[in-house]
Design a protein that fits this description.
Shape: globular
Low-confidence stretches: none
Strand order of the largest sheet: 1-2
Number of strands: 4
Mean pLDDT: 83
Order of helices and strands: HHHHHHHHHEEHHHHEE
């Protein structure tokens, strides 16, 4: 991962949560003004293979379903807050990888579902009047709902002890909500049909990969986050010669005042890493 980060880390999108929220806003505008257009934006793999390649990107514009404007605004702000917190904690590159891998797995899942339907549900496709109509309907199962859910689950796994106000009144630890949502998702998977199962499994695969590969070191408590923020302020006050240098990429606080540095307790020796490599570097052993 670190080799890829050295090569592609500079292309990571800063504040990508805001970009995702703006996509939702554009989707809501389209839904209000030109609802017929949404049918040309969904993730329809059959249409993609017939030249409508823009669907590989535009499905992200399809916003989560809601009929209450106030609830929509609260939801957008909530997911923006979760996303920006994860980006500050993990680093921009890692958070970009997490989101884009979820979108990539969703796209792959839609194509695998298409293959499955052609093999095992040919009669159903014919009953709907052909593949064009059938997959236009099936594409509605692939939406940004599970992308948002993966963000929430990642936040719950990273900050399990963080309290949130349920209905703005009842304080509940986010890990409790994470478990509840997990049960709801499992029940939905068991009770759902083949199409929803493909969509759910593909869209949440990035969280499964994250949980398996990162649960031993990605967790940070709110106190640790506070210390990181205090350290950032201290770095900004430093002037003159650099005091910190990443052992992986070689960046110092002079390259960016927003960079944070930590020594790794698992490395043998005096090795310091920036925020983007603290959790992803290979430990030095003598």
């Amino acid at each position: 991962m670190s080799n890829f980060e050295k090569k592609f880390g500079k292309y990571a999108i800063q504040n990508i949560s805001l970009v995702l929220i703006m996509c939702y806003v554009l989707g809501y505008v389209i839904e209000m003004l030109m609802p017929w257009l949404l049918g040309y934006l969904t993730l329809d793999p059959y249409a993609v293979l017939h030249g409508q390649i823009w669907r590989l990107v535009t499905w992200v514009l399809i916003p989560p379903e809601t009929s209450n404007i106030l609830f929509t605004l609260i939801m957008l702000y909530f997911y923006y807050s979760l996303g920006t917190t994860l980006e500050r904690t993990w680093g921009t590159y890692r958070y970009n990888v997490y989101l884009f891998s979820g979108m990539f797995f969703t796209i792959i899942g839609s194509f695998l579902l298409m293959v499955y339907c052609f093999i095992f549900q040919a009669d159903t496709i014919a009953a709907y009047g052909g593949a064009n109509i059938f997959f236009r309907l099936v594409s509605l199962y692939f939406s940004t709902y599970y992308v948002n859910m993966s963000i929430f689950l990642a936040f719950a796994a990273t900050f399990p002890e963080t309290p949130v106000l349920l209905m703005f009144v009842i304080p509940v630890k986010v890990k409790v909500l994470g478990v509840i949502y997990g049960i709801v998702l499992l029940a939905g998977f068991i009770q759902g049909n083949t199409y929803s199962r493909f969509a759910m499994a593909a869209s949440l695969l990035n969280f499964a990969v994250f949980w398996v590969t990162s649960r031993s070191h990605i967790h940070m408590s709110p106190k640790q986050v506070k210390r990181r923020q205090e350290f950032k302020r201290e770095v900004k006050r430093n002037t003159g010669a650099t005091k910190h240098k990443c052992a992986v990429c070689g960046r110092t606080e002079a390259d960016s005042p927003d960079l944070e540095f930590r020594y790794c307790s698992k490395c043998e020796g005096n090795y310091e890493y920036c925020q983007d490599h603290l959790f992803t570097h290979q430990h030095v052993k003598y």
